[in-house]
Amino acid sequence: MQPITSICGLSFHANMKVFSFGNKHIVLYDDHRSILNVLFEAKKTGLFNTTPNIIFFDRHDDACNPEIRSGDLFEKWGIDRIGDVSSKEFWSFVEFDLSGLDDDWLLAGMELDLINHAVVIGQHENNNIQSMNNRYESTDGKVHELFDIPHLNWSIGSRGCLGDNVIKQPFYKNVRNIFEYNQPPFGSYDKFSTEVTKPFVLDFDLDCFTTECEDNTFAWPEAIFRDKYVDNDDVKCFMQRIIERSSIITICREPDCCGGLGESNKLLWYLDKYFFNGCLQTSPIR
Q: Which region, left, alpha or beta, applies to residue 278 given φ > 0 means left and ψ of -120 to 50 means alpha?
């Protein structure tokens, strides 16, 4: 496996495709645990000067216990820090040691100092984060905050964790701190900080935008996606801002959780059409 010297180099490997979008990159892949490969290579190529947070859209929280700790891995690899392991060894670990259900990568990323804090948007399948009381202490003693919040049409509303100016729940403030949003003295409510001081990865698992009918999974109809994320001006503006403020964007197609390739590709087309200006080339060239 040849060393990856830039994020664009991920395109030479299976299950990865990199697109340019403005001044940043979008990495497309199929299995959600593969995001750790992206974060690992981003760390080695110097994309981040500090461990990034992650803000991700997902139907699941992917916060199951990975049953593996950084100290055990470092001993197995004969290293002192994650940056010293080879890409071949790390990618093999992600593929064969993490769950094939793609449900334990989040805590594994925290164990390996690839992820700091996390917010998952739109998850309604699991309660792993609530059972941890929104915190996870990795082997190195570092405490990571984790939050799951509803879809943005609710979360940025007047009663939502991002939009409620009264801060009815203590964790609201911590969620906003990760987004650097709606926190005086940034200037006023409903505003982001002037500069991004807490770098983050923006990730989309396309199954976040699916529904069930007669025991089958389907992509949201385009009208539903538009209603929740496009025609609502506040949500659309918020989406555009977090896309703009992110350091890198990753998209997991996860077709098996979307009802198949067709449903997954339909959702990818929605994102491409409404938020990425067609840079993902999801529409045929006429």
A: left
